[in-house]
Amino acid sequence: MKEKDYNLEIIRVISFLSVIIIHVANYYCRAFGQISQSEYGFSLLLNTLARISVPCFFMISGALLLGRNEPLKKHFKRWKRFVTALVIWSIIYYLWAIFYLKESYNLLEIFYRPVTEHLWYLYAIIPIYLVLPFLQVMCNHMTPKIEQAFLIIITIAVICNYILSLNDASAYYGLPLIGDRVYTYYFLIGYYLYKYKKQIPITQNKAIIIYGLSMIATIVWTITMTYSSNVHYEQSLEYGNPLIILSSVAFFLLMIRSKLKDKISDKIKNLINVLGSCSFGIYLIHILFLDIYKNHLAPSDLSAWLIVPGLTIGIATISFISIWLLRHLPFGKKIT
């Protein structure tokens, strides 16, 4: 059995923590005008820095899966696991919305609108896994020149899609293989970054600079648009934003080429293994605990300087404990 690449596993752990940061920080960012400017700036900073998390989840999957040659049976088992998780957690969040949040939801809409917003990830990853066997064949049989041409074309496509979205428009027909969203692009780009990590002519220092400058540009853009409209501007934080793409790619490249995996002890590896195995479940469950907080406290009640990091740690901890316990039940691993 091939040994785990702990650089990828470290990225996974950072990513699930960053997702929680995004959802907590968003609660404060969307309260622009109700909280102080310093609180908004602090929340926006953490929100923006954490935006590499979702792209990294897709890139990790692409890096690990696209270079393989797997039987259809294995693909079906993987796909079924995610469909099962979607069904079970949609039921959980439907009941949660009805009985706790006192919100209504039409179950007939489940095919095109998640019961709760963060389940969109499953709506994005399930179609990718459905066509994964064909993507594997494609990637395993492309020459380097074809790969370069392919990457140029799909990069241009995702940038054009984002520019059109800024004007509430979309292409009449999305580019085959990636469509009108960016998620398959991240899946593919993760594979190529991982495959050619030693050949890509970008040093670690340059990767840090690219990440930093992209994040700064995103923050400046968001602040400018927010203060001009007096409403928190969110389009600059979308995953299709070329600046978010650039910072995510730089961060991923920086991490997969780092020497961290050679420096961590076996004890730390065991901890990373446990956290990594629970990461998907933590992603699925953490909104329950955030909803409880939001149901009792408004953003203006407590300072973002305290709550964004504190609530992130608290939700991450209780989510981990819940999923760790759930995975010890007979059905737990099947839905997390």
Polypeptide structure, described:
This protein has 336 residues and is mainly alpha-helical. The protein has twelve helices and no strands. It is globular, with a radius of gyration of 20 Å. It starts with 5 loop residues before the first helix and ends in a 10-residue tail after the last helix. The mean pLDDT is 95.
Query: Beta-sheet strand percentage?
Result: under 5%
Uncertain ranges: none
Q: What is the H/E string?
A: HHHHHHHHHHHH
- Averaged pLDDT: 95
User: Helix proportion of residues, in percent?
Assistant: 55-70%
Which overall shape is indicated by the principal axes computed on the Cα atoms? globular
Number of strands: 0
SS-derived structural category? mainly alpha
Radius of gyration: 20 Å
Gap between N and C termini, in Å? Answer: 23 Å
**Annotation field: number of helices:** 12
Largest sheet: none
Which structural traits does this protein have?
336 residues; mainly alpha; 12 helices; globular
